[in-house]
Every structure is written in structure tokens, then in C-alpha cells.
């Protein structure tokens, strides 16, 4: 984008972007929560807000690659640079390599910012490093950093940690697709809304939001900009923000074929913050069913209660592994806690926060939650196992590890007309194929006997 005309001092969009980075680096904050508050606090709006958002999100996404370039230009490890100066350098390098901000403006504003947030003593260093970076474009810098190792070089080119490149490779088995998937994580996605059935039609929501209907979910509306929280349909609980892939997984559960006619007790075993529970609740209302929504975190259980208010949903704060109920359920959703590698395009800092060593504990929890779901579903009822991760250890391997007698249903039958769903019976969606988050879904039916 073309940068707004802002001078080297009193530069609020850059200050907002810097403070967002600092909150993420120092306080483990989430950029999507901190940035809107900082924009309000600094009264940054319109084009300046769009510029601050691009700087903050773009810099956070590309952090690993920017750090490699900063380290080469500064001739030292980034760990030897003080954190506040490093954040200023990252923002400056992003402007130089990825935006149309003029070199002198990117360097001068960064030097002023460094002076303001760190002190005079670092301004010479920031100036020298950014001037060095400005001598080459992004592609020439990548050429100087190339190692010859395919994983390392892809990780650098697309700004992902190497372990995530390896996970995508295991899941996709096709190098051109790995490149496409990594690239898709770096494109800022549109906001997706779900029109709650029975409360607002998808067409009416698209008109109100000046958006367009989604590709696959009957409830999806895509927005190219704007603030969804200000829409009347969101404020009055007739719609909510939810990636179209997440909508599809909830919809697939409601369409799965049961054995037997009972179909009014639905369970969401990992419900917080309530996106799928809300959509399930609205569909349940139309079918005369009720949803029990279980969530272990009290704070997230409150979010579920808020988001499902007015719908036939009962929220229970409990560990899904130990949840006990007098009745068995007809349909059960396990939207398991996961590494989140499928939603990296929506969470700019997430790829640098997770590590490979987080996965085994998540897999154990996922297996336990899936076994609990299979205990809680009635004979002939269906469990949907869903993750927003494409890592095979969290997806197909969890499902294949289920012991005992379960019938695998082909979830593709519940997602008709969607292309590129693979050989089944489970599906892995991808941003580069479906313009959704990389959601995984599998359907397991408990046999009548056994
Ligand atoms: C992927 S999120 C679910 C997203 C949610 N279904 C939605 O669409 O908004 C996983 C949720 O599981 C919760 N969780 C983690 N461990 C749990 C457990 N043992 N029992 C129940 N919920 C758990 C997490 O707190 C988190 O809210």
C-alpha cells in the first residue's frame, strides 16, 4: 500500500505498530487484541490505521526472515541487540523491503522512533543497520542468505519456522503445494462472518455488511474490510465472526448420517470461545435440538455463554476428559486444542510462538478428548474430530489411534461440491486450496452393537 504522508516525528501509525510489537515480544500479548486498543488510544484512524495494521501484522509475520537480514546487516546475532532497538529495526526493515515507503522516510522515522523509545545512544546503530539493509531488495537479501538446504531456504523465503515447513510437507506430500500453503499464510485474509440460521439470512447479512457470500458454507459472508463488531447483526447476536472452514466442520457434524431417529442431544466438548457452539446452537434451534457446551477454562466458558445467549445451549465448565452426563449424545464435536498451524494467516505472531515440543502433549490431550467423546456418544451417534492444524500427528494419527470398534464415515459426503478434498474419509482444508483456515475434520460413528 502507499504510505500516508507522515513525518519523522510525532508519527503515530509507526508508534502504534512499535507498541504492538513490543507488547507481543515482551508481554506475550496477542496482536489482534492489542492493536485495536492502541489505535483507539493514539486516535489513529482511516488510512493511518490501515498503515499501522500493515506494519504491525506484516512485521510480526515476517519476523524470522527480517531477523536473519538484520543479523547479517548488523554482523551480530539478533539476541545481542536490545529488544526495543530490535523491534524498531524489524519495523524499519519491513518498510524498506516490503512497502513503498521511501528509503529516507523508512530510515529517518525509525531513527526518530529509536531515539524516542530507547534513547539517543542507539540512533547511530539503527541508522547504520537500516542504511545497509536498504542497499539490497528483499530478493537479493534472500540470495545472500541462501544455504542450499531446501527446508531452511523455504523457511527463510516464506518466513516460517523450519519445523512448520516440515509439518506442511508431511501433510501435503507435494513441494509445489507446500510453497503455495506457505505463501497463503502470508496473505492477510478477509474476515469471515457466519449468519446464524433462523436469525438472519446469509443474503441479508451480506447486504448489511457490504460483503459477499462465502464459497462453501451456506452461512458464510466474506468482508474485504471494515470493523465487524460495529455491524448491527453482530451486536444483536444474529451473526458472528468465524472462518468459513470452521463453519464447515460444524455443518458437517450436523449433516452426518446417524443410525436411529433420535437427534436432539448435541455436545460440544471443547467449546471456548464459542464460535462452533453458536453455529451448532442456531442449527439446533431449527431442528428442535439442544447443545451442551463443555469448556475447561472458566473465562472461556463465560465467552461461550455470552456468544450463545438466546440459543438452546447449556454451558458447563468442566474438563471434557472427565465430563459425566446422565444421557448419551446423538452428535458430539471435539474441536480439540491444537498447535493452531492451520490459522497462521489470521494470527500474525503465532508461528513464532509455538514450538515443535508443544505437539506431543497436545496429541495426548487430543487422544484423551476423542476417547471421552466416544464414551459420550450413543450407539449410532456420530463424533466429529476437528483441529485447526494440518499436522498429521494431530489429525489422521489421532483418529487412527482410536481403539475399539468405530465406523469411519466419509466426511466429504457432508461437504458436497467442495473440490480438492483428497481421498477421504477425513478432509484437510487449506487456505491455498479453499480460502479457509487449514481445518481438519473426521467423522466417527459408534456402532449399534459394541
Ligand atoms: C480449538 S479451541 C475450540 C474452539 C471452539 N470450538 C470455537 O469454535 O470457538 C479448544 C478449546 O478447548 C479448550 N480445552 C482445552 N483442554 C480442554 C479440556 N480438557 N476439556 C475441555 N476443553 C478443553 C480450550 O480452553 C479451548 O477453548
Automatic annotation (TrEMBL):
<feature type="binding site">
    <location>
        <position position="335"/>
    </location>
    <ligand>
        <name>S-adenosyl-L-methionine</name>
    </ligand>
</feature>
<dbReference type="InterPro" id="IPR029063">
    <property type="entry name" value="SAM-dependent_MTases_sf"/>
</dbReference>
<feature type="binding site">
    <location>
        <begin position="270"/>
        <end position="276"/>
    </location>
    <ligand>
        <name>S-adenosyl-L-methionine</name>
    </ligand>
</feature>
<dbReference type="Pfam" id="PF01189">
    <property type="entry name" value="Methyltr_RsmB-F"/>
</dbReference>
<keyword id="KW-0489">Methyltransferase</keyword>
<dbReference type="GO" id="GO:0006355">
    <property type="term" value="P:regulation of DNA-templated transcription"/>
</dbReference>
<feature type="binding site">
    <location>
        <position position="295"/>
    </location>
    <ligand>
        <name>S-adenosyl-L-methionine</name>
    </ligand>
</feature>
<feature type="active site" description="Nucleophile">
    <location>
        <position position="388"/>
    </location>
</feature>
<dbReference type="InterPro" id="IPR035926">
    <property type="entry name" value="NusB-like_sf"/>
</dbReference>
<dbReference type="InterPro" id="IPR018314">
    <property type="entry name" value="RsmB/NOL1/NOP2-like_CS"/>
</dbReference>
<keyword id="KW-0949">S-adenosyl-L-methionine</keyword>
<dbReference type="GO" id="GO:0008173">
    <property type="term" value="F:RNA methyltransferase activity"/>
</dbReference>
<comment type="function">
    <text>May act as RNA methyltransferase.</text>
</comment>
<feature type="domain" description="SAM-dependent MTase RsmB/NOP-type">
    <location>
        <begin position="167"/>
        <end position="447"/>
    </location>
</feature>
<dbReference type="Pfam" id="PF01029">
    <property type="entry name" value="NusB"/>
</dbReference>
<keyword id="KW-0808">Transferase</keyword>
<dbReference type="GO" id="GO:0001510">
    <property type="term" value="P:RNA methylation"/>
</dbReference>
<dbReference type="InterPro" id="IPR001678">
    <property type="entry name" value="MeTrfase_RsmB-F_NOP2_dom"/>
</dbReference>
<dbReference type="GO" id="GO:0003723">
    <property type="term" value="F:RNA binding"/>
</dbReference>
<dbReference type="InterPro" id="IPR049560">
    <property type="entry name" value="MeTrfase_RsmB-F_NOP2_cat"/>
</dbReference>
<protein>
    <submittedName>
        <fullName>16S rRNA (Cytosine967-C5)-methyltransferase</fullName>
    </submittedName>
</protein>
<feature type="binding site">
    <location>
        <position position="319"/>
    </location>
    <ligand>
        <name>S-adenosyl-L-methionine</name>
    </ligand>
</feature>
<comment type="similarity">
    <text>Belongs to the class I-like SAM-binding methyltransferase superfamily. RsmB/NOP family.</text>
</comment>
<dbReference type="InterPro" id="IPR023267">
    <property type="entry name" value="RCMT"/>
</dbReference>
<dbReference type="InterPro" id="IPR006027">
    <property type="entry name" value="NusB_RsmB_TIM44"/>
</dbReference>
<keyword id="KW-0694">RNA-binding</keyword>
